[in-house]
Amino acid sequence: MAEAVLAKPDPALELDPDKRWMAGVYGKVREESGIVVNAIADSLVKLSVYAERTSTLGSSATIIERVNSLVRRLLRDANDERWLSASGVLREMAEAAPDEFLAAIEHSLRSPPRAVTSLLTESSNADSWGRCWHADLLWALELLAWSPERLHKVSSVLARLSAIPVHKKWGNTPGNSLNSLFRAWWPQTMASSEIRLAVLDRLIRDHSESAWSLMISIIPRGKAWASPNAAPVWREDDAGKASLQGHIDLWYLSEIGARLIAQAKGNPKRIAALIDSLDSFEGEYRESVASLVETAVAFDDDGRTIVRDSLCKYLGWHNSYNLDGNRKSRVTAERLRPMFDRLAPADPVKASLWLFASGWPTLPDGREQDYERHQVTLAQERERALNLVFRSLGWAGITRLVAEAASPELVGWEIGRSSIDAEEMVSWLIERRATIGWASFDLLIRGLLAAMSDDKRATTLSLAIEQLRVQGLVSAIPNLLINAPFKTETWQLLESLDGASQDNYWSAVIPGFCRLDSVDASMALKQLIRCGRARTAFQLVTFQPESIDAIMLKTVLEAIRSGSEPDGPLPEGWNIGKALGAIETSGSVSRRDLAMLEFAFFHALEHTEHGTKNLYAELLADPAMFMECICLVYKPRNSEPDLFDEGLRTAADLAWTILHSGRGIPGKRSDGSIDDDEMKRWVRDVRRLAAEKDRVTVTDLAIGEWLSDCQPDSDGIWPPAAIAEILDDDQHDDLRRGFHTGVINNRGVTSRAIGDGGHQERCLAAQFRERAAAIATRYPVLAGELRSIAQHYERHAHWEDDQTRLMHEGL
Questions:
Q1: Percent of the chain predicted with pLDDT > 70
Q2: What one-character DSSP code corresponds to residue 669?
Q3: Which domain holds residue 141?
Q4: With 90 as the cut, is the pLDDT of residue 797 above it?
Q5: Which of 575, 605, 635 is the last residue of a domain?
Q6: Angstrom distances, CA of residue 379 to CA of 373, 375, 449
Q7: Considering 748, 773, 797, which residue would you say is the last residue of a domain?
Q8: What stretches of 304-384 adopt beta strand conformation (E)?
Q9: Are 672 and 794 in the same domain?
Q10: Is the Cβ–Cβ distance between 801 and 758 less than 8 Å?
């Protein structure tokens, strides 16, 4: 029976990976419950361990062999489907038959397509709701690693698995499990330090890169934390593990250091990694690392660059935050400072790349405390580097620097602020355009033009436009101007072009962060909207909506609502709310128009400060508008529905969300009191329209949900009398059902302490029984509904109690 159950494929695997987390919804679940499957697997462990402990019995060997044989048949030649299906019971299989389990994994890793690795790849491919398929595999290996005899095999398997990329969202990785076995403090194995070092030497021989990563990861770096590994449930391989806490084996650490230094010799990347942890070494080991750095002068330019970049970060930290030497010793930093200059590549382009890697690079002599002084120092270094490249290699060297720099806009910035002749610069730009072309968004040209003064920029652009005209490259002019600052002076140059060129500019320009006066902003907004770029236009008003005409703001938002520029930058909800607030403050747009905009942007606004207050106000004031939402979502009950317009699907989805997440009391005054007549009028009119539209039941349910989020009367009675009178009517069954659903849903997400059981739900049940008793005489029908809500929470409390008991029993 155990094999019949454990060999079954998991029905969830029949679904697409992005739907497997909903296997229960689709009915793709095992016939046997998880409790039954786990109990069967656990029974195998008990049988095997019992047989081993009673080996004198004649049947013991038979039991052990049968358990081993079962695990062998299940996993020895398992395919992807079998490994994934068994992913929830791998720990039990490992503890039941440790040697067979490890043999099956080793066999799978040696045999293409290495089916066991599907556990890792499936986890990495899963979306945010996906399952960590490989967790049980790692826990199985961890519990086997407690045995010193199995440490080598487990470590070898983990080393091979660690070469497989695992999505960064998962903390359970083969590398982390391997680290837990070899760290100097609180190792999760009973193997001695000598055994662990012997195993490590085998890893260095057989899995060099994984072993290197392991050793780097266990270098002490100050404070650290760890959680205990999985441990056997029935075996005693971890007996005595409490003695491992609170002790660091310094001899073991020194041996690790010696191996790190030995493995780094002649390898630039490994020497760079040791520099990152240089302050973790002491005495002769730190001296050895420093000596390795000094040998890097013999590397080629690429190798020297790797070591130099890491050394720059090390020196930069010491010379920025450890000038007085109070945090760490500065001896090695001072010794290695000259090496930074000696390690500079002979190629001036490669020697300069570190300065153009980012806008805020680390300098070897540290960061100036004064921001402006630091910027001056950085500018001087970049200017010196650019001049060196230009003197040594000319424009060919500048072209290389632009191509190889991580941030070419910084190279452009230095060219722009340099004293290089404008005509010579323009000729180079035009030649560059002829050889590699210009993208609509060219970082080099952006940086170059942004760094120039207004006069120099105007001269440079005029020369460039003139040369492009002479060479018959008029079509390239819009792309040139696209990379110029987004301002009036650029647009004045644009006006000299034909209409098609102007349209090309406005169809592709990316304004970026800029502050325009109201006149320029309005002009730019009109042009962008004309070219169907409403989302890009909205970027212009993000930081200054109050300075833009309210009607223009409304026009931009309506264009976005209509689907303008569907692939453009999506506005953030906070910024949309800020724009709507500016429109509302202007007083020039009606509440209905604001409500329609809030409807369109509901999902963006629902969790912002602005919210959707105008939309809810209109829905609670206008029964017809509330009914429109009902009709978008629900079909008539008895009559034939109209043909559904697919163009209204988005609106229907929004209406469903609003109806089911929205709450509100019609006729509610600013002081919290309720205008009884207004509320009854609204309910009466909505129900009348519902009858006309043949949607009475769904409408009553929606009204009941909306009324559920109400406050007690001034005398503490809940719900207040105005609502209670409506809900107590014998004819309003569906209103009460909706109210019941709304009350349950209003609770939202809950959390509780482990072992708390159904305490929260019992408190809620008592509260609703008290409320029912308070109104039972006056509103007996409604009181019955409140008692029904109490019964719901009582059932939920029993369920939570059962879950707690199951947890305590390990199920």
A1: 98
A2: -
A3: 1-175
A4: yes
A5: 605
A6: 10, 6, 17
A7: 748
A8: none
A9: no
A10: yes
**Average pLDDT, integer, range 366-373:** 83
Name the DSSP letter for residue 67.
Answer: H
Structure tokens, 222: 């100050």
In this structure, the answer to whether residues 29 and 100 fall within a common structural domain is: yes
674 with 756, same domain? Answer: no
* Across 351-375, average pLDDT: 91
> Does residue 736 share a domain with residue 771?
no
Quote the CA–CA distance of 54 and 63 in Å, as a whole number. Answer: 11
End-to-end CA distance of the chain: 20
- Whether 198 is covered by a domain: the verdict is no
In terms of pLDDT, which residue wins out, 40 or 512? 40
Give yes or no: residues 757 and 734 share one domain. Answer: no
Residue 205 within any structural domain of the chain: no
**C-beta neighbour count of 17 within 10 angstroms:** 14
Task: Give the chain's domain count.
Answer: 4
Dihedral sign (CA 504, 507, 508, 514): positive
Query: Do the domain assignments include residue 277?
Result: no
Backbone φ and ψ for 472, nearest 5 degrees, come out as 70, 30
Under a CB-based contact definition with an 8 Å cutoff, are residues 717 and 675 in contact?
Answer: no
3-class DSSP assignment, residue 248: strand
Query: What is the tens place of the pLDDT at every residue in 274-299?
Result: 999 999 998 999 999 999 999 999 99
Task: Specify the pLDDT at position 41.
Answer: 94
Q: Which one has a higher pLDDT value, 370 or 588? A: 588
How much is the mean pLDDT over the chain? Answer: 93
Do 744 and 756 lie in one domain? The reply is no
Q: What is the pLDDT of residues 619-676, one digit of tens each?
A: 999 999 999 999 999 999 888 777 777 778 899 999 999 999 999 999 999 888 999 9
**DSSP helix/strand/coil, 203:** helix
Q: Are 12 and 23 in contact (CB under 8 A)?
A: yes
* Cis amide leading into 98 (omega within 30): no
- Residue 513 Rama label (left phi>0; alpha psi -120 to 50; beta): beta
The answer on 666 and 601 residing in a single domain is no
Q: 692 and 766 share a domain?
A: no
Question: Coil, helix or strand for 674?
Answer: strand
Which residues are CB-contacts of 207 (< 8 A; sequence separation ≥ 6)?
A: 156, 159, 160, 163
Q: Model-level pTM?
A: 0.79
| Whole-number Å distance between alpha carbons of 355 and 364 | 11
Name residue, tokens 């497997």: 20
Residue 206 has pLDDT above 90, yes or no: yes
| CA 767 to mean position of chain CA atoms | 40
